[in-house]
# Entry
Amino acid sequence: MVHLSLEELYKEVILDHYRDPRNKGRLDPHDVALERNNPLCGDEIELFLKFEGDDVTGIAFEGKGCSISQASASMMTEKVQGLPAKDARELAESIKRMMAGEEEGNADALGDLVSLKGVVKYPVRIKCALLSWNTLLEALDEASEKS
Ligand code: ZN
# Structure
């Protein structure tokens, strides 16, 4: 059996989402579409959200950039799909705290997302990891203003 260190395991998860992104592509129809970028690294994300009531019933993204930015977006769409907007917002805030080193991150609750923790020691990559989450928070704000 091949033994992987935690850091190697995190890398594997990130590469898996980068090579085989989930929910990539436009989502039509959608309620909110928002494009943001991270000029430090050249990462781009366009996020699409669809709601039924307060629940996120559809989420997809277009984007290009480094493996961390794209894998983070892919993992985010998997996790946020079906969540009430309030829970999606809490999840995003919790990821931001984890990336700021303020929170350990509960592996059971976060699933693959816990692999983003591997990035915490590379400060320049934290912006890559958080691009999709900051875009999500903005998109949720936009959605709540509309309704
Ligand atoms: Zn990047």
